[in-house]
Design a protein that fits this description.
Layout: E1 2-6, E2 12-17, H1 20-23, H2 29-43, H3 102-118, E3 122-125, H4 135-144, E4 150-153, H5 160-166, E5 172-175, H6 182-187, E6 190-194, H7 195-216
Parallel strand pairs: 1-3, 3-6, 4-5, 4-6
Antiparallel strand pairs: 1-2
Helix pairs in contact: 2-3, 4-5
Length: about 220
């Protein structure tokens, strides 16, 4: 399948061939859902915690005599029913991460790319470069392209001036190709890939398929 290549000034820069194995799949919502859930669960901090009675600092001396007070028998004030005491079954530090096979994660990324291509929400950009780190200039260029909410993915490194100019524009995210992920693809209306990003994506998936075939053989 072919895609038109455009420049930042909304000019035409030829066409490029998109791999059917990466951009031509029928998107599956269940796989995309599993991957988004995996990503969001993994980024949860899991640092919420409370102290139980063994972690409360305080004396263990008996509060009052055992008999004759008319009150219940208590040993110390660190028990959970008193103010300032420990908490019963409170949250503890833990990881919220869930397991997802590596092959499913790779497949989910291909389905996300295919979903954008099928919905005509994929834009192929010749280069993502700016002469100066000026937000206003880049904003006007993106407006010409109709990019109000977009994830822009460049090659191995994001060009410095472009990254500085884009970071203050709301709903515009810029990532190097190594940071490409399903959640960021789906959370923006458009996916913008430079030609360098396309080459890196295709090399990544073609290389992984060759390794898998060699392992099976």
């Amino acid at each position: 399948m072919k895609a038109e290549v455009t420049t930042l000034d909304a000019g035409k820069a030829g066409t490029v061939e998109l791999s059917e194995a990466i951009f031509g799949l029928e998107p599956r919502a269940d796989i995309l859902h599993r991957m988004v859930r995996y990503q969001l669960a993994k980024r949860q901090a899991g640092t919420h915690a409370t102290k139980d009675r063994s972690q409360i600092h305080g004396t263990g001396a008996k509060m009052y005599r055992q008999k004759g007070t008319g009150r219940a028998r208590h040993g110390n004030k660190k028990v959970t029913i008193f103010r300032g005491g420990g908490k019963t079954f409170g949250p503890k530090q833990r990881s919220h991460a869930i397991d997802l096979p590596k092959k499913v994660r790779a497949l989910a990324l291909r389905h996300a790319l295919s979903a954008k291509a099928k919905a005509d929400e994929l834009v192929v950009l010749d280069k993502a470069e700016a002469a100066a780190p000026k937000t206003s200039g880049l904003r006007s260029q993106l407006d010409k392209l109709g990019l109000q909410s977009a994830l822009i993915v460049d090659g191995n490194e994001v060009e410095r001036n472009f990254g500085l100019a884009a970071r203050n524009i709301p709903q515009i995210d810029v990532l190097p190709v190594q940071g490409l992920n399903v959640y960021d693809i789906l959370r923006r209306d458009k996916l913008v890939l430079t030609k360098a990003a396309l080459e890196a994506i295709e090399a990544r998936f073609v290389g992984s398929e060759e390794k898998a075939d060699a392992a099976e053989a």
